[in-house]
Structures are given as structure tokens and as C-alpha cells.
Amino acid sequence: MSDEEEYTLKLYVAGQTKKSLEAFTNLKKICEEHLCGRYKIEVIDLLENPQLAKGDQILAIPTLVRKLPEPIKKIIGDLSNTERVLVGLDLRPASDIR
């Protein structure tokens, strides 16, 4: 994976819940620290657009979907476990998880 790759991320939420807001805040912080401007975050509120859940097969919220670089990856939850998110986004090898 190249250090110049652009990350396309979709964060599926349901309204402005505490967990949804935490997930966005945590994601933004991780992206700023590890992707240095090489990312786009699209927040999709399933209360406003429930039909969009079908396309990415969203079963729980909040869910983060990494569209690019491929392969597509999904991470469910508030993204508070930074190590798990980094591994899930392939920014860190799984062997680094303690």
C-alpha cells in the first residue's frame, strides 16, 4: 500500500446520537493523525436515507465502511479503540494489536 493512497470512508449513523458523534470524532482524529489529508469522510444518516443501508449491507450502526483503497472493509462501533480501527483500515498490521 502506498503512502499516497486516498481513503474513501463512509460512516453510517442513525441521527445525532452520542455514539454516532463519538464515532465521527474518533474517526476524524484517527484520519488526521494517520492519513494526513489523504481521506474523504462521508457521513450517511440512515434516519434520513434508510435505503442507503442496503448498498453496503449495513446491519449495525455506527458502521465505518472503507470504500477505497480496495478491498472494502467494515468496522462497527464508536471507533474508540484506535488500534482496532488502524488494523481495520489496514494502516497497521494485525500483529500490532495487544
TrEMBL record:
Start and end residues of each KaiB domain: 10-91
Signal peptide: none
The name this protein goes by in its record: Circadian clock KaiB family protein
Organism: Methanosarcina baikalica
